[in-house]
Amino acid sequence: xxxxxxxxxxxxxxxxxxxxxxxxxxxxxxxxxxxxxxxxxxxxxxxxxxxxxxxxxxxxxxxxxxxxxxxxxxxxxxxxxxxxxxxxxxxxxxxxxxxxxxxxxxxxxxxxxxxxxxxxxxxxxxxxxxxxxxxxxxxxxxxxxxxxxxxxxxxxxxxxxxxxxxxxxxxxxxxxxxxxxxxxxxxxxxxxxxxxxxxxxxxxxxxxxxxxxxxxxxxxxxxxxxxxxxxxxxxxxxxxxxxxxxxxxxxxxxxxxxxxxxxxxxxxxxxxxx
Length: 274
Hints:
- The chain is α/β, with parallel strands linked by helices.
- The protein has one domain.
- The protein contains 13 helices and six strands.
- The protein has helices spanning 36-43, 57-67, 82-91, 103-106, 116-120, 125-139, 146-156, 167-175, 179-187, 192-205, 208-213, 227-243, 255-264; strands spanning 12-17, 20-27, 48-51, 160-163, 246-251, 268-271.
- The protein has a six-stranded mixed beta sheet, with helices on both faces.
């Protein structure tokens, strides 16, 4: 791996209560850099590793298969004006790359060589959106996943891996992602470059405030997807945190809300670079 694609993970918080220590890690499901060294150091300090949900290939296939079971006559591009569709088609033309995309991206683009319309025809709206967005990320060198990298490392290190949601619960959340928000974000494709550049900067700095309050209105930034699930993750990780010796990996937008709940529950929370 190119050493210039490796970065220090600064989205780690050390949690302590009653002499028991654990960690909360804010992840990026897709990212242009690897945190393999940082994640390895962190995982060596714990025996139990929690993730939002199952990350094995069989579970990822269930997500993909669910997303493909939409209306066969439907294409979300039909809800956009011709100029926007043309812009999306131009921006997302397949890029030549020798680097393989991670499973998280590949599951949303089962036919990466296909035209955008042919690729998403008949997909559910959330699946169509992620198929489009994942191609954009791939074309811009986003070939890593903080979650998947940590999951594979934890497996190789024989850690006790615990999903905090079932795959059915995760699919239910995806099915509830707002169609209106998806269309709005697609219409603003000219902002995607600024959004991803800003997100990379904020994530590398571990800047929770800017990540949480960013103005780009990403489709999954909604109470149903973020705030409601903050409490779900908090409640399901508590038993493991009380025992200590655990690391919980959740999407970075969840960290602020979960930290508030942990603080109210008496946890000492400190930023900790891995």
